[in-house]
Amino acid sequence: MFQSSRRPSAVAKWPYNTTRWKRLRAQQLREQPLCIHCKALGRLVPAHHVDHIQAINAGGEPFDMGNLQSLCASCHSVKTNSDMHGKPLKGCDVNGNPLDAGHWWSSKDRANNEKISQS
């Protein structure tokens, strides 16, 4: 029998279709009601999405609060696109630090080189 590719199976929806996820999501949004990316830029924007920092398909723990972050729809879309296509996040926080943790400015080598040059 033909199954439409538009309708994901129950397995494809896991863990988002579980009671455990729904409770965890609600807890995350209670504890972190603002989008953390917008907040880093000095904007107070309500979060409506709970994102896995490390994607489940990349080995991230689905029910670990330490692997969750609250995001607005716009930031969640950008982050998901970045994860899917390997593109780094663009922009800086209010302190001028890159949002992309992999940016050379954030690297330990850069910090060590600055310490050496200041000695």
Describe the protein's architecture and organization:
This protein is mainly alpha-helical and about 120 residues long. It has a domain at about 10-85. Helices cover about 40% and strands about 5% of the residues. It has 5 helices and 2 strands. It has a two-stranded antiparallel sheet with strand order 1-2. The protein is globular. The relative contact order is 0.11. The mean pLDDT is about 80.
The low-confidence runs, each spanning 5 or more residues with pLDDT under 50, are: none
Structural class: mainly alpha
Largest sheet: 2 strands, antiparallel
Radius of gyration: 18 Å
Q: What form results from the Cα inertia axes?
A: globular
Assign a percent range to the helix content. 25-40%
Gap between N and C termini, in Å?
72 Å
Number of strands: 2
Physical arrangement of strands within the biggest beta sheet: 1-2
Q: What is the average of the pLDDT values?
A: 82
Query: What is the element string, with H for helices and E for strands?
Result: HHHEEHH
* Count of helix runs: 5
Approximate strand percentage: 5-15%
Explain the layout of strands and helices:
Elements: H1 10-13, H2 19-31, H3 36-40, E1 49-52, E2 68-71, H4 73-85, H5 108-118
Antiparallel strand pairs: 1-2
Domain HNH nuclease: 23-77
Pfam families: HNH
Keywords: Endonuclease, Hydrolase, Nuclease
